[in-house]
Amino acid sequence: MDLSNHTRMNEFIIRGFPSLQNIRVIVFVLVFIMYTLSLIGNLVILFIIKYEPALHTPMYFFLGNFSFLEICFTSVTVPTMLMDLLKEKNTVSFNNCLAQIYFFHGLGGVECLLLAAMAFDRYVAIRSPLRYNTIMNSTVYIQLATWSWMIGLVLPLIPVILISQLNYCSSNVVDHFFCDILPLLRLVCNRTQLNEMLSFFICSFILVGSFTITTVSYVAIIITVLRIPSSVGRKKAFSTFTSHLTVVGIFYGTMMFIYVRPTRNLSFNMDQLVAVFYCLVTPVLNPIIYSLRNKEVRTALKKFLLTKMLNRTSMEG
Question: Domain of 292: which CATH number?
Fold first, then answer.
């Protein structure tokens, strides 16, 4: 192996979506609108949960964490996508590329673990409603959220540190719309089996582990709900979690398609399309599905808006 062709990259070129260059203005506007809607929706949820005392419960504590997470998660990748659509050549420094990989995978891991914690919370609420406040006390739900953030943000450190020590060949073009592990490993001259297998193991551990907990919780919920004698009671119970399955299915399905796969010998065209869903589409759907369709959140929002209108009217009067 000729070491003279190896180098430490100072920057990478993000290839993005070259096939969309002819309509990049239209795509930019669509992406910008979706990103803005995601930010506004999640900020509204955060504000309402903080403003309304009736929403100071474990369920909405997790939803508040989830909304904050979604703001951070989309902000890791979507601005890069927008820059790619604006510029002919979108470059990113080596350190910023590694930082993007770390935060993308770290926050993605936190999302998986929070989804599992939220599923467990709903299971306890439906399975043991009379003991819910005892089981899901403040110590328990705060620890669940804290451990979700800690585990999710710590595990990606190992593969990112290993990637930072690799040598790269002459090409510095990342075949993706943001820096990610697998596209970056395609540019490495060293043998990368260890990095690939380590990334595969960590992604599989978080994805499969959290998916198993989430699935078991929802299956247990369904079994419990089906045992409710009243059809009205069953309908009310189902309404508390069925919409969540849409986001859970899209998120886990797309993430597993890309990351629970120990190979890099595949085209990234499909990966890029799938990545758009969990980077952009699901964060837009989450505020609607998880909270804005929720009766308590809508009531709190109407109450807040009505209070503001009355206060403005009294001031003007």
Answer: 1.20.1070.10
